[in-house]
Amino acid sequence: MAAKRLLVLFNPRAHSGSAPDAASSFDAKLREAGFAATMHELRGGGDLDAAVDRYGAQCDAIVVGGGDGTVGSALPAVLRSGLPMGVWPLGTANDFARSLDIANDDDAVAALQAWDPQPIDVADVNGHYFINNATLGLPAEAAARLSPQLKRRFGVFASVALVPVLWQQAKPFDVEIETEARVERRRIVAALIGSGKYEGGFPVRYSALADGRLHLDVCTARSRWALLPILVDIALKRAGRSKRIETFAARRVTVRTPSPKRVAADGDITTQTPATIQVHPGAVRVFRAGGRTSGPPRTLLGP
User: Fold this and answer.
1) pLDDT digits over 253-268, tens only?
2) Cβ-count burial of 273 within 10 angstroms (0-12 exposed, 13-18 middle, 19+ buried)?
3) CATH number of the domain to which 50 belongs
């Protein structure tokens, strides 16, 4: 049987800048596992699309090496190719890889060896695809302030390091949330719209990756002081039971604010309100270590 052919696209700035060195080790592990890999270092611009156009037709799967932002940026090309996607975790947080039970190189190789790609949902906000979530309010402001230097210094704790500054500047704002079923109006400090269900805690994981729904977490604090119990609820994975966090599910959501608010997708500022988010059920097949993706939707806002 011919070896499975992989196109490995990796971000050279990931892994604290050591991705090019890590690539030779990962390539060796893939070859030892019986794969034929084309390792391609992403150089920005249209390089990702060009690499998929050049090598995609010759490959059986695309493996994306980087963090959540790199995976999200690769989605359009992966979707266009129709190939299944593997994940090689090289980023700061790697939330998506963790949700697939992939924590390191060996997990990534093991998931590929099983060769059982499963369909999961993806979503887009104003046409920008994302794999984890779109956010506005405090999470988006954190994304805007997370410099590469801060990520290198604090690693996965970089967002935590920003909490004191964000808390001082936290200001509730009005939003209108429209789904296919109704319109809700709230005064909030943050909103998270995930293609999967945010579980909270640390490290972060997502579940319900293939239920065909968007999952909304809306933080309804009316003051900075009200943020403290919300942070505790999230840290202890009690977001779904918190009185200060409303949870909804829907297939399509439009968020409007009185004045434009920045919106982040997978940790990168990509657009602003008004923002329309829609789910694409089962749009991409992924390799997961340890089993299939599953999970029921939460409290439903919509049919």
Assistant:
1) 999 999 999 999 998 8
2) buried
3) 3.40.50.10330
